[in-house]
Specification:
The protein has about 450 residues and is an all-alpha fold. The protein contains 15 helices and two strands. The protein has helices at about 5-10, 105-125, 130-155, 160-185, 210-220, 255-260, 265-275, 275-280, 285-315, 320-345, 365-375, 385-390, 395-400, 410-420, 430-445, and strands at about 380, 430. Strands 1-2 form a two-stranded parallel sheet.
Length: about 450
């Protein structure tokens, strides 16, 4: 029995026992089987399904914006939606980014084949050890959460118990958000067929509903990474983060807006995921906005109940109600500031390229790979730091392979860095404080005309 067979055969978590039939990954990653309309034909699997360790359903049809479970995270009818933005089979974009202007079409095609081989190599070895990893992480996160809430409920009035409880709860929220939630929702663990660890059933500890985030993040941001005008993550419709974005007097408040955004980052993302700008432009029906608002309202109520009602209410028995409330508020703020810092380090430091729309017209799979490499930035540091970032410190590798298990990014990073070196492409990386400072420097610099 292979690692993959063992991993698939032992579905033991939670109350649900029926394996998820698919479709799987909701990430936008070029697979070489896109059609001119950007969609896969219903029922057709991609060539990667034949790779040992990859499930045949892995690349089944559609798996687009809001497929999978309903907004509440339960198992529902999969609503397939065509993938947006087909890639050209050959040729080159209208204009290549300056950092890649020296590459020929043949260079880009070969680079694409090399990166395909890196991905296929991981898929061939993916199996029981990876499944065991994510299950260990989930157990760790839940243990930290129970311990943190328990300390706040039972001993919140004690200073040291409050600090310990808040720290444990903060850590559990960071791990759930970064290494578990973000990566599960990318479909990194869908191949396990585990109904409790699947991109169509997981609902994370974040205000924005999982399905809304998968649409704006997986389908839009990962397809159009750093393309000004197409990737609204460039500034989140709030900040000016690129010279190509027209300056307005309100941009003088760039640093203020960013400082306010950091501790309430989950709320900023939830509002951003509503796509209010698209509604104003007539690109999104108001009926869809109201539907998303209802889903967000239900999710916010659940989050409020858990963190700001149930936990403090239980703590009132020990006279620690107020302290427990302060603890959960602090834990959410710590998680938000950390997530904000990691995300900004991965996308906005100096050296992370942005792109014009003409740079993606006629883009091939190889060109898509090039854009991910030069448009993302890594964070160097310890294994613990990488773990606490959800391995998004390997942002370059994540953007190249958003559906590979996150614990494999450190393994492929040297190969990706070597490919960048051999093809004369920048590989942007640096310590956490350097990258945070660089991103904030851009926030301040672009506040001015």
């Amino acid at each position: 029995m292979t690692d993959t067979t063992r991993a698939t055969a032992h579905v033991r978590t939670g109350l649900r026992r029926r394996p998820v039939p698919g479709p799987d990954t909701t990430s936008w990653a070029p697979r070489g089987d896109e059609h001119d309309d950007g969609a896969l034909p219903t029922g057709e699997a991609s060539p990667s399904a034949a790779v040992p360790g990859a499930d045949a359903a892995h690349d089944a049809a559609g798996n687009g914006a809001r497929g999978g479970a309903d907004a509440e995270g339960g198992i529902g009818v999969v609503r397939e939606k065509p993938r947006r933005g087909a890639l050209a089979a050959a040729g080159s974009p209208t204009v290549r980014p300056p950092a890649a202007a020296h590459l020929s079409d043949a260079d880009v095609a070969e680079l694409g084949r090399e990166l395909d081989a890196v991905r296929d190599s991981v898929l061939a070895r993916r199996g029981a050890s990876d499944a065991a990893y994510i299950r260990r992480v989930i157990k760790l996160q839940r243990a930290l959460e129970v311990a943190g809430r328990g300390a706040l409920i039972l001993g919140g009035r004690n200073k040291f118990a409050w600090i310990a409880g808040t720290a444990l709860l903060s850590g559990s929220k960071i791990i759930e958000n970064m290494e578990i939630g973000h990566n599960v929702l990318h479909g990194q663990w869908d191949w396990m067929r585990d109904p409790d660890i699947h991109s169509t059933t997981w609902e994370w500890d974040f205000v924005t509903p999982a399905r809304s985030w998968q649409h704006t993040h997986n389908d839009l941001h990962h397809r159009w990474t750093n393309v000004v005008g197409l990737d609204k993550d460039v500034g989140y419709n709030l900040l000016r983060m690129d010279e190509e974005q027209p300056w307005k007097p309100v941009n003088l408040l760039n640093p203020v807006f960013n400082a306010v955004l950091a501790p309430v980052f989950e709320w900023g993302i939830a509002i951003y995921d509503l796509e209010i700008a698209e509604v104003k432009e007539g690109k999104k029906p108001k009926s869809e906005l109201f539907k998303d608002l209802r889903a967000m309202g239900r999710k916010a109520l659940r989050q409020f109940t858990k963190d700001y009602a149930a936990t403090p209410a239980l703590a009132m028995v020990t006279g620690s109600g107020k302290q427990a409330l302060y603890g959960t508020l602090t834990a959410n703020a710590v998680r938000n500031v950390w997530a904000h810092s990691v995300i900004f380090c991965g996308h906005f430091p100096e050296g992370a390229e942005t792109f014009t729309e003409e740079m993606v017209e006629g883009e091939t799979r190889g060109d898509w790979y090039v854009r991910q490499m030069i448009g993302s930035s890594n964070i160097s540091g310890s294994k613990f730091m990488h773990f606490m970032t959800g391995n998004l410190s390997h942002q370059v590798e994540h953007h190249l392979f958003p559906d590979l298990p996150s614990n494999r990014y450190a393994e492929v990073a040297p190969q990706v860095r070597d490919i960048c070196r051999r093809y004369g492409l920048p590989y942007n990386t640096g310590p956490l404080l350097k990258q945070v400072g660089s991103a904030w420097g851009k926030v301040f610099r672009l506040a001015l005309p």
